[in-house]
Automatic annotation (TrEMBL):
Organism from which the protein derives: Homalodisca liturata
Ranges of residues in domain MADF: 22-102
Species lineage: Eukaryota, Metazoa, Ecdysozoa, Arthropoda, Hexapoda
Protein name: MADF domain-containing protein
InterPro entries xref list: MADF-dom
Disordered as annotated region, ranges: 76-102
Superkingdom of the source species: Eukaryota
A Pfam family the protein falls into: MADF_DNA_bdg
Length: 102
């Protein structure tokens, strides 16, 4: 199954809320992908295998998984850069948080 996910033989993945939450949970379990001080952070083979494991678990292509994580991280950073209201009026409560980007 892992080879199929890496080769790109699946149809385009639909990212439901549940699937995104599952992706975040699986990604969080692999700190070598997001903690630069991790001893395996620079090991391309281990990182590639970790991405393949995630793709296999989600029945997705590795490229789709990597793209989704990059998009979620970018979205989170953009939300954090928004100016905060001084009075508190019209301020929106953030709906989610990506722990590896803080």
């Amino acid at each position: 199954m892992m080879e199929d996910a890496a080769e790109g033989t699946f149809d385009e993945l639909v990212w439901s809320k549940d699937k995104v939450l599952k992706l975040i949970g699986i990604f969080r379990e692999r700190p070598l992908l997001w903690i630069a001080t991790n001893s395996f952070y620079k090991d391309k083979n281990k990182k590639n295998y970790a991405w393949l494991e995630i793709a296999d678990e989600l029945i997705a292509m590795k490229a789709d998984v990597k793209t989704k994580i990059r998009n979620l991280t970018t979205q989170f950073k953009r939300e954090n850069k928004k100016p905060k209201s001084g009075s508190g009026v019209n301020s929106e409560k953030r709906k989610w948080c990506l722990p590896w980007t803080t």
